[in-house]
Amino acid sequence: MSSPTSIADRLPSSVRTEIEAHLRQAPQREAAISDVLRLLQQALGYIDDDTLLYAAQQTGMPPVKVEELCSFYPLVLRRPAGRHLLRICDSVSCHLAGADSLLRQAEEISGVTLGQVAKEGSYSILPHVCLGLCDRAPAALVDGHAVGGFDGDALVALLASWEHR
Ligand code: FES
């Protein structure tokens, strides 16, 4: 297990500099937490417990509050993910448009449960809250790009294209 100190050692100096800049610019250090978490996730892939403690130290926030924020923000990853990331919206409009069966289909194709890493690290699939594309449900976030009308055919084609990539 690493420690918050070794997290600092693992960060490229450019990321440490950027974090320090956000902390300096924030009216209170706590206000920089979402930027700090974003930069840490970009650099390290996900926010494990030690990274969470590092974010808490940097911002002066109690770790339990940072943990609450991580649970609240669906874009924060608390475990390793694959090289590609598919998030399928399961909020009301998408639920009514068949998101549940899409998520089940995704588990069948990937061979793992949601949130696990599939196909030798190729990808991970997660449920997600409303993406604001309710009029084009079901919707998904494909490597950070919002896509409407994401049906079973789109799912099959996407996951096939991601395998071993
Ligand atoms: S409910 Fe899925 S995009 Fe809004």
Summarize the structure.
The chain is an alpha+beta fold and 165 residues long. Helices cover 49% and strands 12% of the residues. The protein has two domains: 4-72, Arc Repressor Mutant, subunit A, CATH 1.10.10; 84-162, Glutaredoxin.
Give an overview in words.
The chain is of the alpha+beta class and 165 residues long. It folds into 2 domains: 4-72, Arc Repressor Mutant, subunit A; 84-162, Glutaredoxin, CATH 3.40.30.10. It has helices spanning 4-10, 13-25, 33-44, 49-59, 63-72, 92-96, 99-110, 152-162; strands at residues 84-89, 117-118, 123-128, 140-142, 145-147. A hairpin with a 2-residue loop joins strand 4 (140-142) and strand 5 (145-147). Helix 4 (49-59) packs across helix 5 (63-72). The longest helix is centred in the N-terminal third of the chain and has 13 residues, at 13-25. It starts with a helix and ends with a helix. The relative contact order is 0.12. The mean pLDDT is 95. Residues 89, 91-94, 130-134, 137, 139 line the site of FE2/S2 (inorganic) cluster.
